[in-house]
UniProtKB/TrEMBL annotation:
Superkingdom classification of source: Bacteria
Domain Integrase catalytic: 122-286
GO BP field: DNA integration
Function: Involved in the transposition of the insertion sequence.
Pfam family, one: HTH_21
GO molecular function: nucleic acid binding
Record-annotated membrane-spanning stretches: none
Organism the protein comes from: Streptomyces colonosanans
InterPro entries: HTH-like_dom, Integrase_cat-core, RNaseH-like_sf, RNaseH_sf, Transpos_IS3, Transposase_IS3/IS150/IS904
Chain coiled-coil ranges: none
Name of the protein in its database record: Transposase
Upper lineage: Bacteria, Bacillati, Actinomycetota, Actinomycetes, Kitasatosporales
Length: 306
């Protein structure tokens, strides 16, 4: 209505209001409210600006629950329903995940490890359960294969590697990176994968034995048996890959680096982690562990007297 009146000032305000059956007092009250908004409206405008910033910082990924959680962490006291309403009015929304495609190829003659996980993807501490898998990232140069290892405790990607070939060397390299970056006690860690030929290879199984790691495998063709790894692919392909066309493998590799090491591990908050990022969740665990350890104070020896 305001736009109509502004575009056709020659018609006059009162005639237009009579045709639209709108009292003139209502129209002038709306005009006054736009010039001098009430306190609630001013707060909404300010909150919307903060919401836009949080949403932009996430790369347009966060929906209202995570935006609300970030605002709460920053000391902004606002209801989740209000955040949801303001995002809707501002045309802001999160990204919904899509299910990915499986690339598992099984060797019928391979010796398979038992399923030590049984779909229970929880762990009491870091480095007790790692899940791993392979996926393919398309580029105009050809396929880029991504291997990643995820810690079930914090959901942190502890290691990842890419290659133009989906072979045993790729998964072995990602395992070596993980072992180099984490403190793993022999006999305590379970390495869970699917029945892919890369994970039943002699190279990988021998390295697991040497490191004192227990191998575990889910059943054939059932994504639920490696759901935590499948979930990672869903996130990456939804939040990092969707809608992008990579000219080269190097370009795709850079995008993965920016997402996994620059956003997912240090900054992407998760509801299951109490709206902390994987790194923050691990840091909180180690801080609590250190605070709970008793201080070992040796008794002071009395001074020797002659």
């Amino acid at each position: 209505m305001r736009a109509l009146i502004d575009e056709h000032p020659h018609l006059g305000v009162e005639p237009v209001l009579r045709v639209l059956h709108i009292p003139s007092s209502t129209y002038y009250r709306w005009c006054q409210a736009e010039k001098q908004p009430c306190e609630r409206r001013r707060q909404d405008i300010e909150l919307t600006g903060q919401i836009r910033q949080v949403h932009a910082d996430s790369g347009g990924i966060y929906g209202s629950p995570r935006v609300h959680a970030v605002l709460k962490r920053e000391g902004v006291h606002v209801g989740r329903k209000r955040v949801e309403r303001l995002m809707r009015e501002a045309g802001l929304a999160g990204i919904s995940p899509r299910k990915g495609k499986s690339f598992t190829r099984r060797d019928p003659d391979a010796d398979l490890a038992p399923d030590l996980v049984q779909r229970d993807f929880t762990a009491p501490t870091p480095n007790r359960l790692w899940v791993t898998d392979l996926t393919m990232i398309p580029t105009q140069e050809g396929p880029l294969w991504l291997s990643a290892i995820r810690d079930a405790f914090s959901r942190r990607v502890v290691a990842w590697e890419t290659s133009a070939r989906a072979d045993a060397d790729l998964v072995l390299t990602s395992l070596e990176y993980a072992l180099a970056s984490r403190e793993v006690a022999p006999g305590e860690l379970v390495h869970h994968a699917d029945h892919g030929t890369q994970y039943t290879s002699i190279k990988l199984t021998t390295r697991l034995v040497r490191a004192g790691i227990q191998a575990s495998m889910g059943s054939v063709g059932d994504s639920f048996d490696n759901a935590l790894a499948e979930n990672l692919w869903m996130l990456i392909k939804t939040e990092c890959i969707r809608g992008r066309v990579f000219a080269t493998r190097a370009e795709a590799n850079l995008a993965l680096f920016e997402y996994i090491d620059g956003f997912y591990n240090p900054r992407r908050i998760q509801k299951r982690l109490g709206y902390l990022s994987p790194i923050e969740f691990e840091e909180k665990h180690y801080a609590n562990q250190a605070a709970a350890e008793p201080v070992n104070l040796k008794p002071r020896q009395p001074a020797l007297t002659s």
